[in-house]
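User: Just a sanity check before I run the rest of the batch. Below are the structure tokens for the first item. I only need the designed sequence back.
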């Protein structure tokens, strides 16, 4: 288990310090969400097995016998967890490219619609010096609904 935790820590450090991902905030968020989701699902499964194992001490029956069998095989469960991290990690890497292209296409289409309807200020009109101290979205006039003095 120590080896698995060390490997997981090394992979997470690689993810957060990778020079190829350092410039891509969306990729960092995407992989963080995927790893967090897998971790939450695994924690819920392990917690459920632990809780059912405690309850099985007070009850008898086929279901509780099955719970006892499962709780006696944590080595297999640990291997399945490692396999799940590898499989979902590989799947998330494969899915990221097409997902990112689709999201960029949707974002560009939304921005084009906003520019046509006049609800978005064009990038060429934005002056970074004017935006200092502004909070909120700038409207067609370039002024925010809330200005910080």
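Assistant: Here's the designed sequence for the first item:
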């Amino acid at each position: 288990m120590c080896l698995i935790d060390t490997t997981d820590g090394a992979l997470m450090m690689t993810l957060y310090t990778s020079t190829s991902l350092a410039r891509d905030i969306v990729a960092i968020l995407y992989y963080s969400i995927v790893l967090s989701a897998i971790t939450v699902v695994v924690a819920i499964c392990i917690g459920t097995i632990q809780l059912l194992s405690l309850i099985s001490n007070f009850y008898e029956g086929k279901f509780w016998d099955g719970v006892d069998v499962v709780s006696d095989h944590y080595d297999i469960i640990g291997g399945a967890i490692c396999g799940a991290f590898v499989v979902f990690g590989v799947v998330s890497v494969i899915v990221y490219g097409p997902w990112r292209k689709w999201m960029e296409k949707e974002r560009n289409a939304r921005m084009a619609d906003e520019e046509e309807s006049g609800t978005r200020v064009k990038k060429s009109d934005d002056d970074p010096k004017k935006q200092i101290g502004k909070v909120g979205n700038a409207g067609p006039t370039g002024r925010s609904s809330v200005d910080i003095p």
